[in-house]
Amino acid sequence: MPIGIFDSGYGGLTILREIRRRLPQYDYVYLGDNARAPYGTRSFELVYGFTLEAVKALFERGCNLVIFACNTASAKALRSIQQNDLPQIDPSRRVLGVIRPTVESLAGISKTGHIGVLGTPGTVASHSYALELEKSAPDMKITEYACPMWVPLVENNEAASPGADYFVAEYIDGLLEKDPEIDTIVLGCTHFPMLIDKIRNYVGDKMKIIAQGGIVAESLADYLMRHPEIDEKCEKNGSIQYLTTENPEKFNSIASMFMQEDIEASRVILPIQSLDTIREFMPAEALPLLDSYIALHPNDDEGYRIRGIKHWALGQRSSAINDYLAAIRINPDSKAKMALRTTYDILNYYNKDLLNP
Questions:
Q1: Do residues 219 and 78 share a domain?
Q2: Is the domain of 88 the same as that of 220?
Q3: Looking at the 3D structure of the chain, how many domains does it have?
Q4: Could you tell me which of 23, 42, 307, 15 has the C-alpha nearest to residue 190?
Q5: From residue 197, how far is each of 116, 164, 205 by CA, in Å?
Q6: How confident is the model at residue 347 (pLDDT cuts 50, 70, 90)?
Q7: What angle do helix axes 335-349 and 287-296 make, rounded to 10 degrees?
C-alpha cells in the first residue's frame, strides 16, 4: 500500500521531494487539492471538511498512512481527524502532520531562544507552532507572522522575480520588528522553500532558516522504524502517482517546476466539489447569484462551472460581491448581468484563468 502525501496545492511537493530523496524505496500517492486552494485564508470548518475529503480519497486508494504536507491542514484539521474521524473510519490508519516534527527539531538551534515563524494567515491564526513549542520548549519565545503574498508568488512562478524581493523584505522586516532578538526563522508553509535563496540573501548568514522538507522526511523515516506494523503494510516499488483536483495539464506544468522532473497527474473529483453539495458551503446571499450564473451558462462543462463559482462556494468573497449585491437590491432586473460581472470580478481578483480550467 502506498504512503499518501496531501497538500492544498503545490507546496507539499517540496515535502514529497525530500521524502522521496530520503525514502526512495516506498510507493507514494500525492494529492493536491489545487482547485480549492488556497487553504491559508479558509475557516477552520472548511479546511477540516476539505482535508477530511482528501484523506478519505487517499484511504480509498489504499493508503494506510497519510502525511499532511500542508501547515494549514496540520494546524486546522489534523487533531480533529486523528481523534474524531479515524476511530470511525479505520483505527489502524494514521495521519501525520508537519508542525510537530518541525517544532521538535528546534531544540538547541537558537542561541537567543527567540524563534520566528513565517506562515499563511490560517497557520498563524491557529497559533499551532506556539502551542507545540510551549509543550516541548516553554522557555523559548516564538513570534508568528503571516505572509499572504508568498504563496501566490510561488504558484505564479514569480519566486525569482524582482517583485518577490519586495515581499520578502516586507514580511521579514515585519517579523523582526515584532521581535528583534529572533535568530532562527521557521518557514511554516511548504511553498516557502521556493523563496529560500531570496530569504537567505536578505537576512544574511547570522540568521538560521529552517525549511521543513528534510525534517519531515527524517521524522517519517523514524516513525516507520518505530512502527513496523505500519511499515510492513507499505509497498516498496519506488513508484509515485500524482492526483489533482485541478486541470492536470496546469498541475503538471507547475508541479514539474517544484519536483524538477516531468510530472503526469490525473484529475480526481472530491465529493465536496460536486454541484449538488457545493451549495452547502455558500453564503446564503450568494445563492441567487449562483442560480443566475448557471441559468446564463446551462451547457458549461461541470468543472468550469464549479471553478467559476468556487470562491462563492467556499465563502471566499471579495468586496466586489457586496458591491454588486447592493446594486442588485437597487435594480433586481439586472440580477443575471450582475451575477456574470461579479463572477468575472472575482476571477480577476484571484488571478485565476478559468477559461482554461
A1: yes
A2: yes
A3: 3
A4: 15
A5: 18, 11, 12
A6: very low
A7: 100
Residue reference for cell 505500519: 230
- Residue numbers annotated as active site: 70, 189
Return the sign of the alpha-carbon dihedral for residues 73, 79, 83, 86. positive
Query: Exposed (0-12), middle (13-18) or buried (19+): which is 130, by Cβ within 10 Å?
Result: middle
Q: What is the pLDDT of residues 37-93, one digit of tens each?
A: 778 777 788 888 889 999 999 999 999 999 999 988 998 899 999 999 999 999 999
12 touches 5 (CB < 8 A): yes
Task: State the CATH number of the domain containing residue 154.
Answer: 3.40.50.1860
Length of the chain: 357
In a domain, 355, yes or no: no
Residues 117 and 47 in one domain: no
CB 41 within 8 A of CB 252: no
Q: CA angle, corner 124, sides to 171 and 51, nearest 5?
A: 125
For 344, the domain range is 274-349
Q: Which residues pair with 30 in a beta bridge?
A: 5, 242
